[in-house]
Amino acid sequence: MPEITTAHYVMLSAALFSIGTIGVLTRRNVVIILMSIELILNAVNINLVAFSNQLMNMSGQAFAVFVIVDAAAEAAVGLGIIIALFRNKETVNADEIDLMKW
């Protein structure tokens, strides 16, 4: 049975990061953009935990917990903002949100 190495985790993380970046850059729906940002943060967490395990140091895993907490807060605040925007503009399309324009 082949062994899973740190390189496998880095490749998985790179794939997730790429999918998340493509999602942020190409999608117009704000909910999908937030989900893509969550993918990017999860890719970072995979790297943190993989290198923490390789170096036998717990600081990367502790930092990953803080990133998870930050991602949860970002999701809660982001969804609240999306609900408020949908009530005012009745759309979640990023191109149609122009509240900050003069």
Secondary-structure blueprint:
Elements lengths: L5 H21 L3 H26 L3 H31 L13
Defining traits:
single chain, 102 residues, mainly alpha, Helix Hairpins, 3 helices
Structure, explained:
- It contains 3 helices and no strands.
- The longest helix has 31 residues, at 59-89.
- The chain has one domain: Helix Hairpins.
- Helices cover 76% and strands 0% of the residues.
- The chain has 102 residues and is mostly helical.
- Helix 1 runs antiparallel to helix 2 and helix 2 (30-55) runs antiparallel to helix 3.
Mean pLDDT: 92
Please outline the major beta sheet.
none
Tell me the β content: under 5%
Large-scale geometry = elongated
Give the number of helices: 3
The CATH class is identified as Mainly Alpha
Total count of strands: 0
Class by alpha and beta content: mainly alpha
Q: List low-pLDDT spans.
A: none
Q: SSE order, as H and E?
A: HHH
* Architecture (CATH level 2) name: Orthogonal Bundle
Distance between the termini: 62 Å
Count of spatially separate domains: 1
Helix content: over 70%
**What's the gyration radius in Å?**
17 Å
CATH fold title = Helix Hairpins
Write a brief structural summary.
Helices cover 76% and strands 0% of the residues. The protein is an all-alpha fold and 102 residues long.
